[in-house]
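Figure 3 (text version): structure tokens given as input.
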């Protein structure tokens, strides 16, 4: 077959042309859509990192009050949206705490800070005696955890009590809040301080109903009776407001109480 250049009477000048490398050939073969997709990867990665950083800042209460667009919580309003981030916003904001923890929804008085020493102490904490018409005596508890407790007692817990027991809860039995100690029963990180060491956790051992009956975690968690159903529903409903909610199914150390805290973890068991 006669070459095409021969028909036109001139041969191509290949002497001065650089040789084509395999990489160049392959690069020319890459579709334009693939190149565009690759160019977007760094921007998408950066966007994900920025959004993740913002989410972490909101979750840990690190967004300054002046820059936080989330509205203050209202204890009288059920089912608040973005409740976890709005609770976190109270962590380092005493002014917001005083605006939210107000009568008649709760009786909570600010207490002086106790600077951290050896991992123990508290900041922006209150002394609580009642919330949502429920007697709840907790001597030292962070404003963030106290607000979570108030929302749970006034709304979700009462809904559970009415639905299962046919009456309201009038008081909860405190098993303590602040305690300078490590996590009890930890399997791995045994030297880690408990959330109790910063007053960011509280324990509840029993609930008293309007008719005077007491339902205890220790005595009535097991089984399929109405009291056990109430306790399990109460436990699960607390997970909406507290990041860690532990009961008898978690380990032996919690056989007689619910542990509720607003720490960095996330576990409902």
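Below: residues designed for each position.
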């Amino acid at each position: 077959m006669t070459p095409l250049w021969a028909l036109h009477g001139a041969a191509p000048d290949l002497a001065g042309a650089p040789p084509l490398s395999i990489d160049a050939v392959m690069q020319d073969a890459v579709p334009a859509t693939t190149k565009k997709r690759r160019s977007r990867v760094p921007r998408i990665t950066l966007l994900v990192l920025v959004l993740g950083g913002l989410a972490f800042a909101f979750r840990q209460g690190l967004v300054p009050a002046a820059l936080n667009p989330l509205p203050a919580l209202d204890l009288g309003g059920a089912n608040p949206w973005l409740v976890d981030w709005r609770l976190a916003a109270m962590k380092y904001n005493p002014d917001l705490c005083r605006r939210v923890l107000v009568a008649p929804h709760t009786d909570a008085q600010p207490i002086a800070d106790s600077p951290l020493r050896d991992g123990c102490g508290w900041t922006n904490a209150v002394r609580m005696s009642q919330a949502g018409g429920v007697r709840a005596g907790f001597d030292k508890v962070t404003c963030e955890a106290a607000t979570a407790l108030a929302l749970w007692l006034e709304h979700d817990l009462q809904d559970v009590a009415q639905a299962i027991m046919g009456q309201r809860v009038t008081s909860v039995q405190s098993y303590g809040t602040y305690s300078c100690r490590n996590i009890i029963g930890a399997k791995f990180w045994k030297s880690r301080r408990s959330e109790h060491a910063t007053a960011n956790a509280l324990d509840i051992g029993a609930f008293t109903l309007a008719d005077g009956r007491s339902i205890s975690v220790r005595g009535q968690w097991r089984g399929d009776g109405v009291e056990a159903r109430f306790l399990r529903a109460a436990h699960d409903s607390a997970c909406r407001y507290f990041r860690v909610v532990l009961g008898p199914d978690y380990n032996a150390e919690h056989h007689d109480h619910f542990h509720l805290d607003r720490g960095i973890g996330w576990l409902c068991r």
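The longest helix spans residues 32-59.
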